[in-house]
Amino acid sequence: MRFSRPTGPPGPAGAGVRRALAPLVATAVLLTGALAGCASPPSFGRDRDTLVVGAEGEIPVLDPQRLSGTVGLRVVDALFDPLIREDLATRTDRAPALRPALATSWKVSPDALTYTLALRENVTFTDGTPFDAESVKLNFDRISVKESPVYDATAAGNMKFLTRWIDRVEVRGPHTVALRLTKPYTGLPRVLTDRRMSLISPAVLRAHAPDDVGLHPVGTGPFRQHRADHGKRVELKRNTAYWGGVPRTPSIIVESVSDPTTLAIAAQTGEVDAILSAGAQQVRQLAGQDTMTVQYPEPANQYFLRLNTRTAPTDNALFRRALNHAVDREAIATLTADQVVPSHGPLPLGNEAYRQAPANTADTTGTGGNSGKTGTGGYAHDPALAKRLIAESGVRTPVTLRLLAPDSGPGFSQATEIMSLIQQDLKKVGVRLDVQYMEFASLVAEEGGGYKNGVHGSFNGWTTGADSGDFLERMFSGELHPPNGVNRGWYRNPAVDTLLDRARAEPAEETRMELYRRAADTITGDAPWVFLYQDRLPRLLSLKVEGVTAAPSVYIDYTTIRRG
Q1: Which residue from 380, 392, 410, 507 could staple onto 70, CB 3.0 to 4.6 Å apart?
Q2: Helices 383-393 and 317-326 sit at what angle, rounded to 10 degrees?
Q3: pLDDT tens by residue, 112-133
Q4: Which range of residues forms the domain containing residue 435?
Q5: Which residues, 6+ apart, have CB-to-CB distance to 193 below 8 Å?
Q6: What is the separation of C-alpha 310 from the centre of its chain, rounded to a whole number of angstroms?
């Protein structure tokens, strides 16, 4: 059996949770009954040791250095390795500890301008190419050296958040490299865990045009690609020569099932063993049914309406603050059965710079800040204040905003219902939302170059790297506008950029975190996003699945997961 994605428009926005669950239950019963009459249940042609993971959107081309989006990066994580990884064997309430990966150790010079990394020896890419210092340099050349024969402008733009600080990469021996920086960067090791900085086989980089590298995904990871139906399905076989030990699972199938109801049914009938970003409706349907267990890793993440700060009226900070006060985040939490936590500013729970604001410091003036105290103050739901701020902004109502939004995808199983709530809230203050829904991968591609004039923003989220203080830099730096970064709403504030510069170079951890909090306060007041919520991002795992720890990450350890 192969799943097919719906081709029609999304269901009616604003349907209540109970109404949404009814067809899910009914369809599940019908399908279960139909399957009961079959000689044997569909199994994707797998044996009992094959693990099937349901991906919540289309599987993109697997070029790690070009990717943006959890669906693709999770598959990349099985095929490739970065230089440094996080410890996913331990559950914590902060960012996971760092541990060696392709780099066995690293040290920084006293001026924080040079990082020297000792590389793991006797490692090969899954095509047999040796891993060494030259292969590391070639990967960095691809994203930073225009004269290199493997240079890729698209990948370079996607990786600018890292390479903008790297002056050059020096080979200091067969298994030693030095990253020479243009400015001190004390947080670089955690940034090197980003799965987009996974190392690609030099043979692939040299043999294929930039657009084709992702069609031949070869890394040093615990798995290798066996077969792919691009966009729909990827079959992985374990790398028995993996430096980190032979993975416990012989093979994995990642199947794109972008319709959340279909995915829930597949899990209920045993066709899918794991949903790594489950929606609230799927949790209600499947948890406690003697087939699946729910796990809450609760990684740092943010979901938001990113606004276009270049086009009217969202170029007006007062108007953007008004939008933040107009939205009832508690209603969104209720809709999702408290799967999400309201977010009032850019720093999520679990970020290393996050600190809970004292109750008496919350802003009520309409500025959105909290007096520079913690970086976590924000916007109370206050429609009257929202109307007052709109009047002060000079924006005449009624006014229409055009937004892009996913109709599915990781963390977006209730996207249409959430957008319906937001539409109702904004309509009460004279703002109409014209929402264009699209598949998640299409949304990422559409907004990737930055918002065009006439597009006022999009509903999106960020679930990777949000535990680091320099998450603020990736999202809000004035130097990381497309194509050099993901600040797709064109926000720029020189005061924020100065604080981020200071934080990046600050060796004292508490001082560095305070600088990030001050930057967060200013960003909150500028309101380049409508800050919405942080998702607990539950996983649904078959009772047959073992070896997954609820570490605060969107990733799992592919060496330990197993279908028993």
Answers
A1: 410
A2: 170
A3: 899 999 999 999 999 999 999 9
A4: 301-355+379-535
A5: 82, 84, 85, 86, 98, 101
A6: 25
